[in-house]
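Notes continue from the previous slide.

Worked example: a multi-chain complex. Inputs as given:
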Amino acid sequence: MYKYSRMKFYCDENRCIDCHGCEVACQVGNDLPVDIARRKVITVNEGIEGKEYSVSISCMHCTDAPCAQVCPVQCFYIREDGIVLHNKDICIGCGYCLYACPFGAPQFPKDGAFGTRGVMDKCTMCAGGPAPTFSDKEKRLYGQNRIAEGKVPLCAAMCSTNALIVGDAEHVAEIIRERRTAHGHGVLDETPYGWDIAYPNE
Amino acid sequence: MSKLASLIMTLMAFFPGVALASPDIIRQQLPQAVPHYYKWGTLFVNLQVHLFKVLFLVALIAVIAVEFLHFVVVGPKRFEESGRKIKVYNAFMRLVHWLAALSFTILVPTGLIIVFSKFFGGDGFVRTMRSLHFLGAILFAIAVVPLFLMWVLDMLPEEGDIKWILVGGGYLTKKKVETGAGKFNPGQKAWFWIATGFGALLLITGFLMYLRKPNFIIPFVKYQIDALRLAAIIHNFAALIVLVMFLVHLYMSLFAVKGSLKSMITGYKDEEEIKYMHSSFYERVKDRFGK
């Protein structure tokens, strides 16, 4: 599927119990201010029997990341393992990444002069940022760097039902495939849930 | 829409750094969770990646080049002072005009710096410019209503406008021709309507983007994020038109017609200039000229 490994999130809607634990773990573990929500759990088809399910959304680390494309300062960079990160020193807080994102991942604190948008903040897959690894600056601006510690991101690490999984795209796809087969759903009709294009072709 | 997309795909060949992902792969994980989330997002991404910067750059260079050419080939209009003057702008008009002028001198350069922020390196400098852009918008919001009300009647189309358009406003020749324009010529009228109309549009869309989470219902748009995307698209296009007209206005007042800057400072215009540049207005007021 991929020539090289790409880190991807996947939330199994059959397992997510809408506990919002991932949100809290992210918020607390990364010392985020109140108005920043890097991860959110949403419920689809709420109240409709049999169709209701919850999923946890954050930055999906798209391969063709639209945010990186539209950024007027080009402060985004995509790591070799596919994690989409951005440089807060360069970011001007124009909000274009938010308009480009299909998931509403970019977050903006209201801390510029006149209450304008401050610099953008988003899920880093707990991989820190461009600041030196494990430095105070990295912790302050981007949160923990658990990837460099060899750990799973906070949200996936605490998920009590293992609904939220993260890792190399192929491994994640393999796990999903096994789960679906075990449930008797058969294999997926398509290549499992590509994370490749942010916007599907209409 | 698909035509536009294919056009953009072709254009993309010129921008190798920003290729979109190949369309053959896989659906996204959460299409149900975010229904129609792609509606304006795709358009915004395509426009922002391929069009806006190029348009602004082309407009900037083209307008300045045409102005430079005009200055060299035709040259500025000069009128000898006859000494007989008439007051055309009262103190209130001048105050409002210069307030609007101040706001535009802040808004246009800071806006361009935001568009070309990669060139300026981002960081604190551009962030400061963004704050200034907001400050300029407040000044413009104060100026735009009185600006509109004080001149709206003078800016309605008149009979003499046709003659002005036919003689090219008298700007295409070194000779002095009677242009037939009233108090304001059609060029000034176009600038007035664009500055106030598109200016208001820019204020509204800019304010929407400033709010980030507009907590009220916006017509035609189902999702907040789509409102913001539309606002960004409209803001860019409107800004482009205003930028072009602003540059033309700047050139006209500073270089093309000598003395027009002075008239906006003192409020008085000389008989000689009005006779040619605003000839039908001259017919109406020629008895009122004083020393």
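Summary box: Chain B touches chain A through 48 residues (CB under 8 Å). The two ends of chain B are 62 Å apart (CA to CA).
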